[in-house]
Amino acid sequence: MASWEGFGMADDFGNDYITVIDDEGEEFELEHLDTAEIGGELYMAFVPADMDENDDDFGLIILKVITEDDEEMFVTIDDDDEMQTAFDVFVKRLDEDES
Predict the structure, then answer these.
(1) DSSP character for 39?
(2) Out of 46, 54, 67, 79, which could bridge 30 as a Cys pair, Cβ 3.0 to 4.6 Å?
(3) Is 60 exceeded by the pLDDT of residue 12?
(4) Is the pTM of this model over 0.85?
(5) Model confidence at 37: pLDDT above 90
(6) What is the distance between the alpha carbons of residues 16 and 46, in angstroms, rounded to a whole number?
(7) C-alpha span between 74 and 39 (Å, rounded)
């Protein structure tokens, strides 16, 4: 399970953006779209901050929030069923927000 560190907000972008650092030390800016509790677990949906919505590779990034040693961390979701459930919830919620 790959983890993403860096739960803090990026000051230069405002409250809707975060900087995450992957296991290889690479930094990424993500735009936070939504947060949902699903089955007692907390999930957050993002898109890359620098991605063009018209790009064919544009996609939703869903990360699970876990607490390890009293620190909140993001982890990728390795279980296909868990990912599909979270994806379906976020797509529905985001579609409702656009209506």
Answers:
(1) T
(2) 46
(3) no
(4) no
(5) yes
(6) 10
(7) 17
CA 33, CA 42: separation in Å to the nearest integer?
A: 14
Phi, psi of 24 (to 5 degrees): -95, 5
Total Cβ atoms within 10 A of residue 60: 14
Token pair of 92 as six digits: 């529905």
Backbone φ, ψ for residue 62 (5° rounding): -115, 125
d(CA 10, CA 14): 6
Q: Average pLDDT of 52-70? A: 80
Q: How many CB atoms are located within 10 Å of the residue 64 CB?
A: 22
Q: Which long-range contacts link 28-33 to residues 24+ away (Cβ below 8 Å)?
A: 30/61, 33/60, 33/90, 33/94
CB 61 within 8 A of CB 45: yes
